[in-house]
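=== RUN LOG ===
request id: a7f3
mode: sequence -> structure
chains: 1
length: 145
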Amino acid sequence: MFSLFKKEKLEPVTCNANEFVAPADGRIIDITTVSDAVFAEKMLGESIAFEFSGNEVTVCAPCSGNLTTAFPTGHAFGITMANGVETLVHIGVNTVGAKGDGFKMLDKQQGDDVKAGDPIVKVNLKTLKNSYDMSTMLIVTEPNG
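=== RESULT ===
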């Protein structure tokens, strides 16, 4: 269920409208170990964190819905599911400071409908992990849609 990639080739993702998938192939890490208290203490909502390896990763939609927020810097994006549940994917800690360097938004734009597994942003981990904690958080910011 958590493997969306195989040698950078996307595999089809099957999931129901109210389910989540991992945003990329990686390992789940304890959210309380993330180096930012806002994430570690779940101040934004119920959360899970991932660690990705390699030089580059394509971060995908973890659920189906509307891409309601797409930061131009590429460091974060939000999806509102059909049931009203709101999510946020935040790639790295304090990566807004990179001002988009190391992030490349792909074909999806704010306002687009997305399906779980759709590629959203390509991340150059090799460049970014020298300066940032690249833990990636999936946060349910509004669970009661």
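=== NOTES ===
The longest strand covers residues 136-142.
The first helix runs from residue 37 to 40.
=== END ===
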